[in-house]
Amino acid sequence: MKHQGPIESHPSHPALKTGIYTGGLLIAVMFVALVVTNRVHPLERYALERNIFFYGLFFILMLVPVLRFLNSPLQMFSSAMIGWLMLVVAYDFAGHLFRNLSQVLRTPLELLTEGAVVYGVCAVGSWVAGMILHARHHPIVPGRKGAREAAHHSR
After folding, report:
1. How far apart are the first and last CA of the chain?
2. Under 8 Å between Cβ of 86 and 24
3. pTM of the prediction?
4. Closest C-alpha among 78, 82, 91, 85 to residue 29
5. Domain presence at residue 154
6. Which of 17, 27, 37, 79 is the most buried (most CB within 10 A)?
C-alpha cells in the first residue's frame, strides 16, 4: 500500500484561522492606536495624520476576510465575525484601562453591531455579485416540454 501524502489529523478551517489572525491584528492596531493617542503627547500636534494612519491601517485589516473569501460569502461573514468579536472583547477590556472610552467613542454593543452590519453587507454583496455572474454565464431558461408531453391531457 502506497502512502500518497501527509495524513492530516485535524481538518483545516480557513475561516477560523483567518478570523483569529484578523482579530489579533485588529486588536494590536487598536491597542497601539490607543496607547499612541493617550500616552504619546508629542504626537498630539499631528493628531489628524495619526488618526488617518490608524483608520487606514484598521480599514485595510478589516478587508482581509472580505478579500480572502470573496467567492464564499458564508466563510467571509463567519471569518470576519470571529475577528470582529475578538476585537469587541478586547475593546471592552480596553474600556477598563482607558477611562471614558465607551462614552467618548462607542459602546461595545454599538461596535459589534457596526461590524455585523458592515460585514453582512459585504457578504450579501458578494453573494449577489456571484449570482449575477452565474446568471450571465448560464442561461436562465426553463426546461421546455416535448410536443407529446404538451399535447397529452388527462381528462
Report:
1. 64
2. yes
3. 0.79
4. 91
5. no
6. 79
Helix residue ranges per DSSP H, the chain: 14-39, 47-68, 73-97, 101-104, 108-137, 147-151
Average pLDDT of the chain is 87
* Domain-embedded: residue 91: yes
Tell me the pLDDT tens digit for each residue of 53-83.
999 999 999 999 999 999 999 999 999 999 9
Average pLDDT rounded to a whole number, residues 90-97: 92
**d(Cα 82, Cα 15) in Å, to the nearest integer?**
9
Residue-range definition of the domain harbouring residue 79: 14-136
Within-domain flag for 9: no
Q: How many CB atoms lie within 10 A of CB 126?
A: 19
Cβ pair 3, 61 in contact under 8 A: no
